[in-house]
């Protein structure tokens, strides 16, 4: 009889441990648009805004997607990040990014193959315009 009671107790504890806990960390970004400003020559400034970012990396990703699409629209195959500044005020995230665009792969570490990047952005649900 004790063995049966012990077995029932173990099953009861196991059932308690398998209960699902609802996730509260769901990522629901609200991409609110981008402004583009041609600075000089091949330098382009992108201002992106969004809500619901988890951190600054989400804003950087959004800016990169916009820069990649811009490069393709202008007939270039590549972009390179020069700098990006990210700010969060009251839940509104803003990225101020500067990129160079070019037809040949640029020198530097932060180069982007625009066609590959735009495809990746689409797969990740990040708008490019």
From TrEMBL:
Q: Which PROSITE patterns match?
A: PROKAR_LIPOPROTEIN
What protein name is recorded for this chain? Lipoprotein
Q: Which organism is it from?
A: Jannaschia pohangensis
């Amino acid at each position: 009889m004790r063995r049966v009671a012990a077995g029932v107790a173990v099953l009861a504890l196991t059932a308690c441990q398998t209960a699902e806990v609802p996730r509260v960390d769901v990522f629901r970004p609200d991409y609110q648009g981008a402004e583009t400003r041609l600075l000089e020559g091949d330098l382009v400034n992108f201002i992106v805004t969004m809500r619901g970012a988890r951190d600054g990396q989400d804003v950087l990703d959004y800016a990169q997607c916009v820069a990649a699409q811009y490069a393709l629209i202008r007939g270039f195959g590549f972009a390179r990040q020069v700098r990006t500044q990210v700010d969060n005020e009251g839940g509104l995230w803003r990225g101020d990014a500067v990129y160079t665009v070019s037809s040949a792969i640029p020198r530097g570490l932060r180069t982007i193959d625009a066609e590959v990047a735009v495809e990746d952005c689409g797969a990740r649900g990040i708008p490019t315009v």
